Predict the structure.
Amino acid sequence: MKKYILLAVIVAATSLAYSCSSTEVEEEKSTNAKAARIARGEYLVKISGCGDCHSPKIMTPKGPVEDSAYLLAGFRSKDHLPPVDSSVLKNGWALFYAEGTAMVSPMGISYAANITADETGIGNWTLEQFKTAMTEGKWKGLKDNRQLLPPMPWQNFTKMHPEDLEAIYDYLQSTKPVENIVPMAVFSTQ
């Protein structure tokens, strides 16, 4: 009888040890997969030029570079656009703010959004909201909202593989949150 009890204890201990190590291996695989997705997302954000509009710039001797304090935080809430000669806009021109974070056109004024992990950015967005914004061009990723304004090239992302969109989302959710409330777009009344 003692042999059977000892055997049962050994089997239970072995099962528990295997279960724990199996769980640890699965958690490590999941962590590694998430890290790989975030790294891929960072790569895609950089090669897609997201920072060209969504990161304010500072001038250096080598030209403008992304302001690391506002990386991907959009148009700085403390900034103000200079006066615009509307006669230029009537001739079909669009004007970009020097930092690249705003555009004035015959359609109105659009401001680059904060896409950091802060709640003033996309920090509280779901993956589905992100996909809706990126593939359907809906403001805040809500299907009943207005369309995103140019120069946001959301049409370029409509054919992107879902895994790549998820990688971009995971990367943006991993960024340093930057509190920055971007002004609302102003639509032209012309």
